[in-house]
Design brief:
This protein is α+β, with helices and mostly antiparallel strands. 36% of the residues lie in helices and 23% in strands. It contains ten helices and 17 strands.
C-alpha cells in the first residue's frame, strides 16, 4: 500500500478495516498502522517480562477455562461471562485468571504475573473488544503496594517505548510528549470515589447509582475526571457493592472497597485491588454480594490452607497501545479480529 494512502496530514492512520472483518487480515498484511501495532506489541511484551524478572516475580501459566469467573460480577460490572461447553461440561472462557494469580502468589513469595487473552460477552465498541489481552499480576502486599508497583511498571513501559519505538509512535501519534511525561514526570494523582463524585456534583450523567450503595462513574464521568484532574488519576475506594466480592473491605468502613482504577487514554485502563486475607472475610463478602459460595469453595479453602494478604491489578494491553498511539477506537488495534457472533478467519 502506498504510504500516501495510509496517512492523513502526514500521520499514519488506521484503515478502519474492522468494518469489513472478512478482509481485515489483508489490510493488516499491507498497512503501516498495523506494522506499528505489531512493533509496539512486541516491545510491550518483552518489557513486561524484563520488568517482572527484575523484581523476582514469576510468570504463571493459566488455562483459559474456568468455573469461577472473577470480572463479570458485581453491580458495577459492564461485562458478561462467556459460557461454553467442552465435552459436555458447562464452563466459561476466562474473563481474567486473577484468582489463579492469587494461587500463584502462594507458590512465589515475590508474586506472579501473566499476559493472556480475556473474553467478554458483549459486542465490541469504541472502548471494548470481545477478546483482548490482559497484563495481570498479583503481589504480596496491600493496596498502596500494588498502586506503587503499577506506577513503576507504567514508567518502565514508557521508557521502553521511547527507547525502541519513538519514531514509530511519532509517525502515528504526531508526538511522543505523552510518553515522555509518563516516563519522566510525576504524573500520578489520587482521589477517592467519594471525592470524584463530589467533584462531579453527583451528576447522574457522570455518577450512576446502580442500586443503593452501589455507585460507579460513567464513561462520561471518567472523561470529566481526567479533564478536571488530568490523565493518570487513580480513583480509589469504590462502594463495595459496585465492585466484585473479592476486593477487600476498608477496615474502618466496610461499605467501601480497597480498590483503585487508573484513568488514562479512553478511561479506566488499569484496575487494581487488595484481596481478602481470610476465608471468613471472603464468606462475608460473598453473602453481601449474593454470590453462591459453592462456586468458590476452592477459593475459600485456599485461604484456610494459606491465608495471605495479596493485591493485584489488570491492564488491558490494547487500551495501553491505544493511548500510546493517541487513538480513540480500540477496534483499530487487534491484528486478528474476534467479534462475538461472527466466524472470522484467520
Amino acid at each position: 500500500m502506498s504510504e500516501a494512502l495510509a496517512t492523513i496530514n502526514g500521520l499514519v492512520t488506521p484503515p478502519r478495516s474492522w468494518k469489513t472483518p472478512e478482509r481485515h487480515y489483508e489490510q493488516v498484511l499491507q498497512h503501516p498502522w498495523y506494522s506499528a501495532v505489531a512493533e509496539l506489541t512486541d516491545v510491550f511484551h518483552f518489557s513486561t517480562v524484563e520488568f517482572w524478572r527484575a523484581k523476582g516475580v514469576r510468570s504463571f501459566y493459566a488455562p483459559i477455562t474456568t468455573g469461577s469467573i472473577s470480572s463479570p460480577m458485581g453491580l458495577g460490572s459492564d461485562s458478561k461471562p462467556v459460557a461454553v461447553q467442552v465435552e459436555g461440561v458447562d464452563t466459561y472462557l476466562a474473563d481474567s485468571m486473577q484468582f489463579l494469580l492469587e494461587y500463584g502468589c502462594r507458590l512465589s513469595e515475590s508474586g506472579s504475573y501473566y499476559i493472556m487473552p480475556s473474553f467478554r460477552g458483549e459486542k465490541a465498541d469504541e472502548r471494548h473488544l470481545c477478546q483482548f489481552f490482559h497484563s495481570e499480576a498479583e503481589i504480596v502486599g496491600d493496596l498502596s503496594d500494588v498502586i506503587d508497583t503499577v506506577q513503576d511498571y507504567l514508567r518502565y513501559l514508557a521508557n521502553a517505548f521511547l527507547e525502541h519505538s519513538s519514531q514509530t509512535i511519532l509517525k502515528a501519534a504526531g508526538t511522543v510528549g505523552h510518553i515522555e511525561r509518563l516516563a519522566l514526570d510525576d504524573v500520578f494523582r489520587r482521589v477517592t470515589f467519594e471525592e470524584a463524585a463530589n467533584l462531579l456534583d453527583n451528576d447522574p450523567a457522570f455518577v450512576e447509582e446502580l442500586a443503593p450503595g452501589a455507585r460507579c462513574l460513567t464513561n462520561a464521568g471518567e472523561k470529566q475526571v481526567m479533564e478536571s484532574l488530568g490523565e493518570f488519576t487513580w480513583v480509589t475506594h469504590n462502594d463495595h457493592l459496585s465492585v466484585p466480592f473479592y476486593q477487600a473491605f476498608e477496615p474502618d468502613n466496610n461499605g467501601l472497597a480497597r480498590n483503585g482504577d487508573l484513568l488514562f487514554g479512553i478511561g479506566e485502563t488499569v484496575g487494581c485491588g487488595e484481596r481478602h486475607t481470610t476465608a471468613d472475610q471472603v464468606r462475608r463478602a460473598l453473602k453481601l454480594h449474593n454470590v453462591n459460595e459453592s462456586d468458590y469453595a476452592w477459593y475459600l479453602r485456599m485461604r484456610e490452607i494459606a491465608p495471605m494478604r495479596t493485591s493485584g491489578f489488570g491492564m488491558g494491553i490494547e487500551r495501553f497501545l491505544l493511548w500510546s498511539l493517541r487513538h480513540y477506537d480500540i477496534r483499530d488495534i487487534p491484528l486478528l479480529l474476534r467479534f462475538n457472533g461472527l466466524q472470522i478467519n484467520p
